[in-house]
Design brief:
Blueprint lengths: L2 H11 L21 E5 L2 E4 L4 E4 L14 H12 L9 H14 L3 E5 L2 H16 L3 E5 L12 E2 L9 E2 L6 H4 L2 E4 L4 H10 L4 E7 L12 H13 L3 E5 L20 E5 L9 E5 L1 H4 L18 H13 L2 H25 L4 E5 L2 E5 L8 H4 L4 H13 L2 E2 L8 E2 L6 H18 L3
Parallel strand pairs: 3-15, 5-8, 5-9, 9-10, 10-11
Antiparallel strand pairs: 1-2, 2-3, 4-12, 6-7, 11-12, 13-14, 14-16
Helix pairs in contact: 2-9, 3-9, 6-7, 10-13, 12-13
Amino acid sequence: MTNDSLRRAAADLFPGGVNSPVRSYRSVGGDPIPIVRGQGPFVFDAEGTRYIDCVGGFGPAILGHAHPAVVEAIAAAAAEGLAFGALGPREIGLAESIRAATGLERLRFLNSGTEATMTAIRIARAATGRDLVVKFDGCYHGHSDGLLVRAGSGVATLGMSDSAGVPQAVAGLTAVLPYNDPSALLRWFEAHPDDTAAVIVESIPANVGILAPDPEFLQALQSLARARGALLIADEIITGFRFRRGLSGVLPSADLVTLGKIIGGGLPIGAIGGPARLLGLLAPEGPVYQAGTFSANPAVMAAGIATLEQLTPAAYQRLEQVSRHLENGLLTAIKRAEVPASVVRYGSMLSLFFRSAPPRDYAEAREADTAAFARFHRAMRQRGVLVPPSQFETWFISLAHNEPEIDAIVRAAAEALREAVPG
């Protein structure tokens, strides 16, 4: 089938022709690319066009695509059966690897990041006997009703529904505060000293492009929540195992941690981890209900084990080297093109903003020139490089990217920047 025939078939079957909104490419003014396979740092569309992939499945493909060890592990697990609805050895093996790398005392596997953050909040409410939750503008924690909220009219007000179908009574249990603003968090706790169950935050925000956390803000997150009896939930669904073997280390005193992406090796997964006193609140040990038919599916566990086995200190060192190479190349290309753009990088995560200075919060990120990014995206695609189809999505580099691929990305960007912001 051709790309066009696949798009037509999908448009007849799925809302917007896709099964997740960003895949529609609407924000960059293009048509979705039907990807039929991936190999290493490359993906291929239905007509055989090859792209250097900087999307990485939006996070999980840290080894690149179709890594032989992961493919072999999935095949071996599938040959033994895919759904038992029972305890199995692979979930124990993956959990032991995660615990050894993170220090998390107890874990519960789930099927997605959305399930993980939803469950973390449920635990926090049960543990504290409180209802209100604080999140930060621009941070994304999945699409559960209570987290699809936007900021209200004030700095310390309860949130407003950000999606049709979310009752205001539900959205109103979540406050949305500006990121990197410790004073806003202090004012919130002064106004609601005994009502807040949890503060949830991405350890490094990566769903509005990358926002660099200020040290003062990180300190406030950890000290204020604890002082007021609220739990701190570190969302490490993207960042867990991304920079090093284990957690990011950005919020070391978090009470609960959510994981996903990399620990599933490219298959659907979520996880929540923390001390036994909190994880013990989950059924059947405690009163907080959570269940899942496909949780700890043996093929997913096998993929996760195989992936983590590849993530050695040497692997992370190499990943840092190639990612730094890309960052330096993009900064040089921006300077030579004399365009208003900036680069933010954490390890193998990177964002190119069409804004002269890197943003500190969501309000500043929204100032980026999205029309320029759309032109840049199309120009990169024409040159065989696939970057995320939104100014506000993060680029991901994998261990399969080598110097030739990085050099090709930089060369393409040098030309695409001039097309994005014509002189």
